[in-house]
Amino acid sequence: MNAASAFTLIRPSFGAAAPQEAGIRLDLPVAAHAHARLRFAPADQTPRAMLPAEALAWLKETLNRGIKVDEAHLNGPGDPLAAIGPTLETLQLMRREYAGITLGLTTLGINGAQHAEALAEHGVSRVTLLVDAVHSEVVQKLYAWIRPGTKTVPLPKAADLLLEEQAKAIPALRQAGITVTAKTAVYPGINDQLIGKIGARLAELGAETLLLAPFTPRAGEPDQPPAPDRARLRELIALASLYIKTEIAGQPACCGQTGVPGPRTGAAGQPAALPKPSKERPNVAVVSTNGMDIDLHLGQAARALIYGPREDGLPCLLTTRALPEAGGGGARWEKLADSFTDCFALLTSGAGENPRSILSRRGITVLVTDGNVEGTVDVLYGGGKKGKQCRK
Fold first, then answer.
1. In what order do the strands lie in the sheet with 209-214?
2. Which are the contacts of 231, defined by CB distance < 8 A and separation ≥ 6?
């Protein structure tokens, strides 16, 4: 992920909404980790993952506005199955508070077979599986990287693994009693000639519906395929319908971290400002194994890089600082907060809910990302693709 697309904080923002008879699907961005990244990634920022309690609060606020919600859907910014703990916790909270609301999620399908029973036990009844290809060579044209576990593997091997995982996920989810809808983004010149084969394969595996999402190019982004025209989409619907019930997806496909559409369905989530430096908290803490990439889980970190503005205002590496020793539960993160009172944010590739909650309460926003250190820090100080970076 490039620095300019590292993250955006998303918070609900609703206008006056009258009660509705027809319910909406409320998409909840609770997945901090991605399993893959498409090549045609947008230059704008993708949302920070909510904590499970934040997602529940968003749902409560939506309902309190008089908006009828039929489905709470876990959808981005990463993949809900990349880290199952927060996903199951969110589902448990939703089910406990609102038993009548349908629960669903969108995923690439990696770990889908492994977690199918757990998802069903936690109330999931609908899964949307993102399937843009059924041939390894096409997967490799669409994805910049695929990370089945904690490390990126060579793309040819990862593409094969993705197809295997999707092939196992569909029947396993169906057997667990979960409805499976496949969603395919149509990329002219890359996968549009294969939509019929995709539909046939999905039907063979047991998917019940195929949604075709037309790719929408973004202005200023090079090397993108064109958008499919309406006539071509009608042809593709007719072709795929020979094998599986096929419809046009309600949203155009964009190309974020996992291929999940960026706009939220049914409720307009407006991006709020990223956390900003202040006079009291001018600095950013970063945990990294090599000083270049944000690639270390907070729980495994012994030291943090401290970035902040120098005399001319450019963000620079100022020093390193030891983190409290592992162990001690919440006391460890309270000690960290005591020692990092000059930091407004902490960048890490992963963090548990407990440290995120404690540090947030103490004025330090934990941002989970896998970007470049200097570029991502630059975004927080108002830079980006055109921002200047400190060089020593």
1. 24-28, 69-74, 102-107, 124-130, 179-186, 209-214, 245-248
2. none
Q: Which two tokens stand for residue 225?
A: 């395929």
DSSP H or E stretch at residue 245: strand 245-248
Bridge partners (DSSP) listed for residue 186: 214
Q: Name 284's bridge partners.
A: 307, 345
Task: Give residue limits of the domains in the chain.
Answer: 3-271, 283-380
Q: Decide: 216 and 233 in contact? Cβ < 8 Å.
A: no
- CATH architecture under which domain 283-380 falls: 2-Layer Sandwich (3.30)
Q: What is the pLDDT of residues 145-162, one digit of tens each?
A: 998 877 778 999 999 999
Same fold for the domain at 3-271 and the one at 283-380? no
Query: What CA–CA distance (Å, rounded) separates 62 from 81?
Result: 25
Q: Model-level pTM?
A: 0.67
How many CA atoms lie less than 13 Å away from 55 in the CB half-sphere?
32
Q: Give the fold, CATH level 3, of 3-271.
A: TIM Barrel (3.20.20)
pLDDT tens-place string over residues 123-138: 999 999 999 999 999 9
Cis-peptide, bond into residue 309, ω within 30° of zero: no
Which residues face 91 on adjacent strands?
none
